[in-house]
Design brief:
Elements: H1 5-10, H2 15-30, H3 34-40, H4 53-66, H5 76-90, H6 104-126, H7 142-154
Helix pairs in contact: 2-4, 2-5
Length: 162
């Protein structure tokens, strides 16, 4: 079986990254109005035309504000938006359809937005207003270690391996 261009381009991200991006895309799709949905999306939810800069900026900002507790990854929605455009283009018939190309204005906006979000988060942490619950490694108490050991020993493998 021959490897196609679509196969190669479809493997540029890990399965986990694709899952995260698709979750973000779902949240972004929920932010589109009915009119925008019919204008930009096909039945499978892929873009049929690039998002207009103002529309993309609005839904990105709304998703970021709604998921403020996920401060750890300010770039997640920006990257997901780029992925949405690339994957929408990749899923199209190159012989029949025009590619979905993200506008330079939107690329610039996404980069600036992500940088600004990181700066706001860093400033908040610097003055002690905001700390991320999952930042760094959290200590595990002894009872949790005992629980892990019980599970490992109960798994039926060689106790030495457990």
């Amino acid at each position: 079986m021959a490897i196609t261009h679509h196969d190669v381009m479809g493997k540029h991200l890990s399965v986990g990254s694709k899952k995260n991006y698709n979750s973000c895309i779902g949240k972004m799709k929920d932010r589109l109005t009915e009119e925008e949905t019919s204008t930009y999306l096909n039945a499978e939810g892929w873009l049929v035309r690039p998002l207009h800069h103002e529309t993309a900026a609005r839904i990105l900002h709304e998703c970021q504000l709604r998921n403020i507790e996920e401060v750890s990854d300010e770039m997640k929605y920006s990257s997901a938006m780029k992925y949405w455009h690339k994957e929408s283009s990749r899923t199209r018939d190159f012989n029949r359809d025009e590619p979905i190309i993200i506008s330079p204005d939107l690329v610039s906006y996404l980069a600036t937005y992500a940088t600004g979000r990181r700066r706001i988060t860093a400033d908040s942490r610097a003055i002690g207003e905001e700390t991320e619950a999952s930042e760094g490694r959290l200590p595990i108490d002894f009872s949790e270690y005992k629980s892990f050991a019980r599970c490992a020993l109960a798994s039926g493998v060689n106790p030495r391996d457990a």
